[in-house]
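Researcher: Structure prediction, please.
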Amino acid sequence: MSNVYEAIKSLNFTIEERTALRTFFINNPEKKAETELILPTCNDEEVVALLKGLLKPEQYIKEIKDLKYHIFYLELANTRNSASVYRHVRERGDVQLWKIEEDITPLEEAVNDVFNQYRNAPAQGLSEININQPFCKNVVSEIVNQVERNDLLVVGDNGGRREDEVFPDIIIGPVGFYAKLTKNPPDLSKGLGWEVKNNLNDKSKASEGKGQLIKYARAYLSADPPLTSIFYGCLTDGKLWQFVKIQLMLDDVNDLKVKFEESLNYEWSKRTASLIAGLINRYHNDLSMRASGEKKESPNNDETFKSSISSENLLASFIEEGIDIRLSSGNCIHVQITSHLGTGRECTVFLAQVRDCGIKDAVLKIEVYKNTKISQIYREISALHSLGDLPCVPKILFEGHTMGGSPALLTDFAGQPLESWISDNGNIDDHTIFQLILDLLSCLEKIHAYGYTHGDVAIRNVIQRNGHFYLIDFGLATPLFLHSDPCQAIIQDYGGLCQIIGIIKFGEKMSFSELMGKLKGELRLFVAFIEDA
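Model: Predicted structure follows.
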């Protein structure tokens, strides 16, 4: 055996060791050449010992440690379903009842005027945005004023939240970070994010809200350094108030967890208002101690690791090392990563090659977190098999799992994302937009004729390839017979084409009526046809 990569692949190494060795030889080509002169003189055991000896222990340990921290933070990421984040913390974290009245000193005298002004909490089940949120934000703002914490700021989302953004309904933070807390989206490392629902008796909404609080805590506590080591949060509908205390337990890299303490539900009363005041006062004191340089005992005082891990650096290491995929046949392939294309709700996507098979410019999709009962990759594999005869649909090259057990899919159909194509070509004329839409319309008609909907027609899921435009990402593709209203599902696909027109032509998603008021000619006729359907 004379090739180091073949030795790494075939001999007895752990996944972590293979990753570290590939990185080592990529970064040290002279060592690769020296080692390959020695390999033919060694038996397998000697080769394993030789290669392991080349690893710098401290570098190897740091790489593995960084990877574990990165995975820990991924489990709490915004792209995950909020309720599933809360379930994950309940299953793997340290969840306790927070006896808040033994920890926080209520400030009853400070809230008399507040409670008298806002004595009647809104009824549950009303408009969350128009009723619950304004009431709760006004209460918190007035309490901050009454406890005379003039260096604290209270802001709301002002209706600026976009889909999938980490965007609290109420944020409490230092006034010095006004610009960062009021931008869209806000910088959540600079304040405490609180969440408002319209009915906390709805368990699904309560679980979702707690998951959102964990996401806000992740953004706050993973700053380098964090403003304070403890995140104090609140979930409320105005009538009921529940308080949480969140910490990241980072001392033991092999036992990373979230410490999540949640109080009982408190009905809106002067006592509840006094607890809110006490909580805000505690946060202010923590900020003051951190600013003055005073340190408190903290469970995440790990000086060997800075909590803001660079995802870019980790992705760069994947690009250098590649990924091993175990196929359903039991065989393994080594996939070389060319670049990172993006990360969605459940999957990370790479441009990739399989040199051993002569495959260039393929698309590798790996499931990194699962938000639905059915794996998105499995859904895509099923759909692509059913649509395999269509030339406008990606072809499956390989399907299998990573060595860590995550579903993986390799397809052809690499191309230029529509967004970057638009950036390269500047202003796009109506004729070109119409030809683009015709390409996508033709593809959708074929998909529908085969009994499927695409389910996620959006500008991010369109590529340009060989002068034509195609839909990609079939993770939400669904057989028509599974839809309660198949016709409406088809119209929804076509509606996605109209949204694409709005983004290309006017730079934003627009309603049918808005598009009709601005478009002319063939594009207007197309939108009118979809609206009438």
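Model: The chain has a mean pLDDT of 83.
Researcher: Thanks, that helps.
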